[in-house]
Amino acid sequence: xxxxxxxxxxxxxxxxxxxxxxxxxxxxxxxxxxxxxxxxxxxxxxxxxxxxxxxxxxxxxxxxxxxxxxxxxxxxxxxxxxxxxxxxxxxxxxxxxxxxxxxxxxxxxxxxxxxxxxxxxxxxxxxxxxxxxxxxxxxxxxxx
Length: 144
Known about the structure:
Pfam families: DDE_Tnp_1_7
Order of helices and strands: HEHEHEEEEEH
Oligomer: single chain
Protein name: PiggyBac transposable element-derived protein domain-containing protein
Shape: globular
Helix content: 10-25%
Strand order of the largest sheet: 1-2-5-4-3
Domain PiggyBac transposable element-derived protein: 6-139
Organism: Araneus ventricosus (Orbweaver spider)
């Protein structure tokens, strides 16, 4: 479990109880998301999407635009050469980075965000991974 870190090791151990005969998606926060953990889950037919710390991005961090290089509602995406994993950095008030093995930035939708300059809610472009993550995080669905 050392290769996965503490959070990734926990995900690896708990995911062993998930049946591999159907498709499952795990949504995790930054404490449990890592590239090696996502690869392990993918090898076991389990998809993953979650926020990830920049220090866990290895070489992908150099390929993403910096926070200063993005304006509100803009994003940058890096896709692995086999198209099985992507990392999306999206800027709202601050940037957030997500790793996914199941969804990328398309299709793009909009979300309402408060604008300090305009003093009202405005439409901000939002990649699909952000919308899906926000809708799925904070709860669990278990079929027994």
